[in-house]
Sequence to fold (214 residues):
Amino acid sequence: MPLWTDMFILGLVLTNFRLLATSRLAAVIQTTVLQAVFLIAIMLAMTPRPWPSLLILLSLITFVVKGALLPWLLSRAVREVKVLREIEPLVGYSASVLTGVALLGLSFLIFLPMKGAVSVGSDFLLPGALFTTLTGLLVIVSRKKALTQVVGYLVMENGVYAFGTALAVEEPLLVQMGVLLDVFVAVFIMGITVHQISREFDHIDTDRLSELKD
Fold:
């Protein structure tokens, strides 16, 4: 179903722009849920029916971890630190969206010469995966709130996950399970760390934390 695959990849790309354009942390977390849904949809659309049981199991685990457990953990952290918006980011939201457009063009520019050389079911999957990874990296370096940076890490991992969907042909379950385990542990630890930072310093701005002395 190449048409559906391309539409789901387009949805994944649009969620990246939503992430770059919004300041509300609740909307940022909701975007990660949408990305989880699109990642699962891409994986299912690329696989001919009947779907193997391992693929269905992987889809369920992906939704539980990326679409429910991690967003719940991040939402809980937002409620505890009582921070609703990312105010005064290092890079403004309009500039972030324009940078995102440039990164999307760069992603297509990198993979355009490989078109036809790598068969992944869609010509847009690898550029979409690279753009998602770069968007997560941009969020990490351009936002001040530690929670937003955690979401950036999660989005960057979503890009890696999309790469795995495209290229892990032989053992996709093992590869994706390894990625899921890594991101779950990382985001879980980051959520606890953000909560402890908020309790000790009454804020979670990483630029101010970098000024702390012994």
In short: Residues 137 and 172 are 24 Å apart (CA to CA).
